[in-house]
Predict the 3D structure of the following.
Amino acid sequence: MLTKHARQLTLLMALGFALTAASAGAQIRQITMVLDGFCTTECKRDIEHALDPFAEDMESLDVDYATSRVTIVPKENARVQLWDIVRELQNADRVPVRTTVLMDASVEDYAIALAPRARVFIRKVLSVPSHASRFVMSRTGELGATVAAAAMGGGKVSVFGEVPAFDTKSLPILIVRKVKAAGEEWDVDEVAALVAQDEDAG
């Protein structure tokens, strides 16, 4: 029989994993990674080879020699995890030093417990069920503005942010740099400027 604490934890975890109607239309639009070092023709071949297992999940893959940027546009219902992409690049010795993500997502509460009997924390996450992805929103960045935008947009938002690090044992952290209302368009030049600005800030 489950204890009161265990029942509470189970309920909170179930709530965290629930896919609500507000999640409809969520999608990762673009992933941009800046590599460590100068990217040559050989570098591009290494990247294309490393990411070949995900070819069916990508609308496009672009490698920019001048900026050492790798830009990925996933297909709408691609189930590949961002961590899987990063791991394959690391295995190919093409380590991304900065990763930014443009996505449409729903804002949800997520229960986090650091140990079986530890205190349960509720954090705000960006959920993209179509890609089987969740990102814990950092308290830095535009957390407040994102939650406010979600409240006015039926729980949904469109955000640009940075994933500062990856850990296989926990959900990735996302620092939201800019938030828009769900369904609002992003101009190509606007996104490029945000990527460049984020690199300068780093």
